[in-house]
Write a structure and sequence with these properties.
single chain, 3-stranded antiparallel sheet, 10 helices, 9 strands
């Protein structure tokens, strides 16, 4: 069986929608719209009424390709075997099966596409059955003489084919091998073909299963790789987040450490100065106590000691006067030193107090600034949340108004349709009543009745506020229309309909 020969593939084209180019736009087809061809195949494009053969040189933007309405792939192989089978009667109960092989070659691909040569086996079988005398070659021989029948048919087909070749458009068919099979051989051959077909089907199913398994395996591997990539990305993001948090913690610790170190240095400096001043004061106190002890030992007064030494003659008056002046100067110097020390201590203490106050003020200002910034951020977040809630409420109100408007329109349309149906029913009833002559003695003015129908139609479409002022129909019964009844329908109409039915029944009798 020659599958897909000589036409391998056929495609119909629509007008190309894709356009390329900036200044000069032109139509172009997609690459997948051009069927792929093998080395022994060609494309045949139909452009209007013409057929153009292409060995694969035309591009998607070629005018022939963009203007083509269809494309066909034609097999140009040489001497393609095509097997044709037919039966001829024998001298016995069974039939001979004649299997003939034709070797076909495409000579004109455009002619093959133009004439639509799709089922070449059917054409060759028709040509084989047209051979005169073919069916009588085995009618006088038994089933066992299949070789003699084959020689007769081979000679007849060879002679006939030389005189009248197979009439195939664009194809050249050469007569080849002829086989004549008995019913047993045919059954065996058919069984073999069926087994081969089943084997091919099993191979095809196995290949499809293998392809499906490979596709599933590839899909699972791809999904696994995507999950791995997602895990890697998540791990990288987590590591980056941890690194940033560690850097923030390190920066916070460094700043806190610098703050504590600065405070410790200030406190340590103040403590050192206080300790130094305390040591100096202790030293001065010790010196004073020592001097006081000396004075106490010498009389608690060095002047007296000098006077005592002068009276004793140990020193002269000039020496005593010089010592007195030296003592006064020493006392004045001690007083000055003490005052300077107290002044320096006071200035140092005041400097420490100013630094402490300045540091405290800076800390308070920084804390207040952070509090103000946090309050501003909280207020901004609250305002954004209120704005979002207001937008949601506004959208809900707009949606509710839109739905209410749609419901009102739908209710108005339903009422209008109900009124129209009631009007149609009323009109039909009135028409039947007029046709039956039921209003001959009851209705004095048919025009008024028609006007009432118009009023009912108009009253059904008007708003409820205007219906109260609708024109009343003379002689019409006044009653309210119950909910669910069509407009224009009343009990009189029901009576009229029943009366009409009775009249028709009487007429039938």
């Amino acid at each position: 069986m020659a599958e897909n020969y000589p036409l391998v593939e056929q495609r119909e084209y629509r007008r190309p929608e894709k356009r390329v180019g900036w200044l000069n736009k032109r139509s172009v087809r997609d690459e997948d719209e051009l069927p792929l061809i093998a080395a022994h195949q060609v494309r045949v494009f139909r452009v209007g009424e013409e057929y153009v053969e292409d060995p694969g040189h035309l591009r998607p933007d070629d005018p022939l390709v963009t203007g083509a309405s269809s494309v066909t792939v034609v097999d140009r192989r040489v001497e393609v075997p095509v097997v044709v089978e037919t039966r001829i009667p024998s001298a016995e109960a069974g039939d001979f099966t004649v299997r003939t092989t034709f070797y076909c070659t495409v000579t004109d691909a455009c002619a093959v596409v133009r004439d639509g040569v799709t089922d070449i086996e059917a054409l060759l079988l028709g040509h084989l059955r047209e051979v005169p005398g073919l069916t009588e070659d085995g009618s006088d021989l038994p089933i066992v003489d299949s070789d003699a029948v084959r020689e007769r048919i081979d000679a007849r087909l060879t002679a006939y084919h030389e005189m009248r070749p197979a009439p195939l458009s664009g194809l050249r068919a050469r007569h080849g091998l002829v086989e004549v099979l008995t019913p047993a051989e045919l059954a065996e051959d058919i069984a073999k073909l069926q087994e081969e077909r089943r084997q091919r089907e099993r191979d095809r199913i196995r290949q499809e299963w293998e392809q499906e398994s490979a596709l599933k395996r590839s899909w699972l591997e791809t999904e696994l790789e995507l999950k791995r990539e997602e895990l890697r990305n998540t791990s990288a993001l987590r590591k980056e987040r941890n690194r940033q948090e560690e850097e923030l913690e390190k920066e916070y610790g460094r700043q806190k450490h610098e703050t504590l170190l600065s405070r410790f240095r200030r406190e340590s400096g103040a403590e050192d100065q206080r300790h130094e001043l305390a040591q100096r004061a202790e030293r001065n106190r010790f010196n004073r106590d020592q001097l006081r002890e000396d004075v106490r030992l010498i009389g608690a007064d060095p002047i007296l000691a000098d006077f005592n030494a002068w009276r004793q003659g140990d020193i002269s008056a000039d020496e005593l006067s010089r010592r007195l002046h030296a003592d006064d100067e020493r006392r004045a110097e001690l007083t000055d030193r003490r005052r300077r020390a107290e002044l320096e201590e006071e200035l140092t203490r005041r400097g420490f107090d100013r630094d402490e106050v300045r540091w405290q003020v800076e800390q308070d200002d920084r804390r207040k600034e952070l509090e103000r910034q946090a309050a501003r951020e909280e207020e901004a977040a609250r305002q954004r949340e209120e704005s979002r809630r207001w937008d949601l409420k506004h959208q809900d109100r707009v949606q509710a108004r839109h739905e209410a408007r749609e419901d009102a329109h739908q209710l108005h349309r339903d009422r209008h349709e109900l009124n129209q149906q009631g009007l149609a029913a009323w009109t039909q009833l009135s028409k039947q009543a007029f046709e039956r002559g039921l209003f001959d003695g009851q209705l004095s003015d048919p025009g008024a009745h028609i006007n009432r129908i118009q009023d009912i139609s108009y009253d059904g479409d008007r708003p409820a506020a205007e219906r109260g002022t609708a024109r009343e129909v003379p002689g019409a019964a006044h009653r309210s229309i119950p909910q669910g009844e069509p407009a224009g329908f009343d009990e009189d109409d029901a009576d009229l309909d029943l009366g009409g039915t009775d009249s028709e029944a009487n007429l039938g009798h």
